Structure formats: structure tokens, C-alpha cells
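Below: protein 1.
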Amino acid sequence: MTALADLLRKQIRSTGPMTLAQYMAACLLHPEHGYYTTQDALGADGDFTTSPEISQMFGELIGLCLAQAWIDQGAPERFALVELGPGRGTLIADVMRATLQVPGFHAAAELHLVEASERMRGKQAAALPAARPTWHDTAETLPDDIPVYAIANEFFDALPIRQFQRDPKGWREVMVGLAQDGRLERGLSDPAPIDALNRRLDDTEPGALIETCAHGTAIIDALARRIAGQGGMALIIDYGGWHSDGDTFQAVRGHRPVDPFAEPGRADLTAHVDFEALARAALIAGCAATQLTNQGVFLERLGITPRAQSLAKGLAGDALDAHVAAHRRLTHPDEMGSLFKVLGLYPGTESPPPGLDP
């Protein structure tokens, strides 16, 4: 067990079982013992690897996609270039480098990073030595008087979720409590009707489990209101599907699945993204949403294969093999190409972002 586990046990003994969302938030963001406070998550020596860490091509194409969308909307003279959950800053650094030659883009861009961890902010600053980003704890404090062009890559999967199991008498919420021996374990609340889940009564049966993410829809609302009102776009890139169906809560440590309750604060906790819920939140806020598109298809539409061929000309041996493997990993249906999806948000009066269909 961990120091955080001891704190959580004391809290549960004092106030009773907590929701899965409360448990995830504590494990990931506790100021002293949280995962993002204490662990080196990314890379071969960490717990997981994201697309920007696999190849520079990913960030380059995302940057050119953003720049083309900016041009398509008349190249506004000021805009907020936003990344949510920038990690080590690899993606946004590649975006900045790839757009350096786009006339007027850097002069118009004001860089804003949504990052709650002071430790990660330091890594992002080191990756962006020539930039002067403004950091935000939440999306609610992003500028609302200029267009917003935003990226969220593997951000929404780490937001706290709640789980509900359908019961003949309503819904039972998955809670985190204590076993007789003091271990943290899952349990269920008493059944009760939940008006917000009435729409799921038509497509579920008793015993079915669904997940909700209020944090995710709130963030989409903040982005979509700005895009609908001022212009811009957002790219949401993550793993998940169009509809929440079943238990997708998981923990990863050292690139392998582990028990999410064994060592709180030492493993990455995630869940699949319900893109339908995000798209619905965007539409309610007055913003248009694209069709959900596989990452591999999206990157191919943006020109990843010609870019890969161009880079390959200067490589040989192990470097060339690694480059080919990276291209495959990002695009192939058996790897990240179909596991990861892309959703675009944009003003309904404008064209969708490049690579995506309305």
C-alpha cells in the first residue's frame, strides 16, 4: 500500500465510501501523493507512450491542420493556441516548429496551456524555451474574446468518471469502500432513479454498466462556447467510442495493466472516452461537431505517408526501422490507427477542420 492509500482509508472510515470520480481525482491529482505529482509517466521508462512521443510527424501534421483551419477562417490577427494536458510539451513544441514558416501564424498566436500540475508546467517550459505560454488550471479561464484553436491529445481519458449499474429499481453507483481486511475495493450503492440517466433506459438492460464524465462535458462546454462565439476549432484525440457501454476503467503501470486499487497514486488511471457525450455537449453550446474519425484515417488525410517517405530518405539501419515502425504504430488499424479517434469542433458557419468530415 501507499501513503495515499492510508489517507483514503481514513477518509472512507470517517465519511463512508467515495465515488469512482472522487477516487480517480485523489489518485491522479493529490498535491503530495498524486500520480501526476510524483510519477514520470511518459516514455519507455514511464507507464505509457503517447503519439507525439512516438514520432515528430504527429505534432507536425496537427500543427499544419491548425494552421490551415486558421487560414480557412480568414487568418484572424489574434487567436489563442491552446493545448489541454500538454504532458512534457512535445506536441505543442512540434506544432510550433511545424508552423514557423506559415506567414503570420506565430505573430497572431497567443499560447495557452491547460495544466494543473506545477511539476509538468516546468517540463513544458523547458520544451518551449522561446515561447511565453500562459498556464491555466482549467479551461474556464481561457480567453473568451478571441478565436480559440485547441488540441486535446489523450486528455479526456484521464478525467474522473462515475460508473452506474442498471438495477430494476433504478441505478446503483459504483463506489470505492473498504474490504474487511482494510483493502480498497469496489462496491455498489443502493438503487435509486437518476433522471439524468433516463435516456439510457432505452438501450440498456438490468445489470448493464455505463460511465459518465461530468468534467469532460464541462470542458467541452467551455471550449465550444468560445469557438461558437469567437471562431476557431478544437481537435479531441483519444481512445474510446461513440457510446458508453461497459466497464472501461483501467490502471497502467510500466506499460502493463495493474489493479487500480492496489497502489493508489503510483499507476495511471484512465477510461475510454464517450465521444457521443462530448459531441452532444458541443452542440448544446452552439458549436458544430465532425464525424468521429479513426486516427489512422485522419493522419493519412493530412499526408503522413508522404511526410514519412520524405523523412525516410535521410535514414538508414536502426533509425530507418524505428521510423517505419513509428509510422505503422500511429496509423495501422491493428495499432493506434483505429484504437484512437478524432473529433473536431468548429463554428457551424465554417468548414470543418482539415482531415475531418462534417
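Below: protein 2.
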Amino acid sequence: MSVTFHNVHKTLRQKTKKTKVFEATDVAFRPDRISGVLAPPGSGKTTAANLTTGKLRPDFGRVVRTSLVSFPVGGGGVFNGALTGRENLAFLCRVFGFDPRPIIRFVVEFAELGQAIDKPFKLYNRDERTKMIFASTYAIPFETYVVDESIIGGRGQFRDECEALVKHRMETAGFVIYSSSPGLIRKYCNEFFVLDRLGLHEVETVEQAVAMLGEGRLRDGDGYTEDASEGGDSYELNPR
């Protein structure tokens, strides 16, 4: 099994406000499946994704990762703005145990970054940043990719090539896709879960998931963004 939640409890604490997201949650995501988790906006989708990748830890219980799990797809928090694109990639490859040379070469060619690969990441324009973030994530051969809503990014030809790369990765790797969009889950996934009532619950179909949550609580979309995250909070890499 790729990622397993064992009796997971999680409460988010923000100043005086406490929001309970999980209570005694057990679920297993297998590395040979494309798992879709349908979740209404504000229900804890990003918290669940961060628990899956290891960015967050449970208050009680365990999340066990027995395969190589990605950082969040489309998230820029793993990139250091003061380092060049090349230096960021070399660091990530060392953390996850890969030879950086073929991965850097792939990213430069796939994203058509040219000399931008050797300038500080904080100086990238919007297109360069988005291409770098998505190309880098999929260039590293993770065994499980974790998606929080945005699965592809960029514009024009890069967007089309990014989607083709995603489908190629799905042939050999697992995905856990957290989304508020039934259409996105239906398009890519072959097993389905609902995030509701403080837990993750497996269902047989997307239609069953929508019926459980109520269509009015959901928001359809295609999982695409033109502008990837600039980073925000730093991301603590957790390769195992």
C-alpha cells in the first residue's frame, strides 16, 4: 500500500478558532490506483493533501507512506527563491535519491526554459514559474503523486504537453487527487472517496459521491491553473 491513514485525528488551530477535520480516520491509497477524493470547499481538502504528503502530521494516529510520495503538484513551496532553477532541482533530486542530470535536462527541454534555468527562482516570470513547478514535479519519478485541485498548469502548447505527461505518469504511478470538482475526479480516477463527516469514505462511483455530499456543495472545474503558487509557506520535504 502506498499511503495509509491509521486512526488519524487532526484539528486545525488558528488563533481562537479550532476546526476538527479528521476523527479516527482509516483509509488506504494504493500505488497502482488513481484515487479521487471529492471534498466540498472548506471541508479540509488541503489539510488532507498535506497529511498525505507529510507536510502536516496528525494530532493522533499515523500516516504511513511505504512508497515515494510527491510534494503537492503545482505547489511552489519546495522551491527556494534565492536558488537558481538548476540548484533547486539538484537539491530536490538529492533529497529524493535521484541523479539530477537527466531530470534537469528533461525540465529544461520540456519547459523550454533555456537560460532561465540558471537565474534565481524569485526572478522567474509567471509563465517560467508555472512551467518550472509543473515540469519539475512530473520529471521526478515518484511512485505516488498528490494533487490538491490543480493537476496541470501553463498555457498553450505547454498545457497540452503537461496533460500528456500526466497521463503517461498515470501508467506507472499512483495518484491521490483531492478536488471539489466531480468532473475532474470522473475524468482521471478509477477509485473514489468522499471527505465528509470527519473522515474519508470509499464509494463506488462519482455519482454516489455527489449524492452523498450534495451537488450544491461542490464546484466543478478542470484542474487547470495558468499561475502556479509562488511558494508561500516553505514545505518540509518528507521522502519517506
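The longest helix spans residues 126-139.
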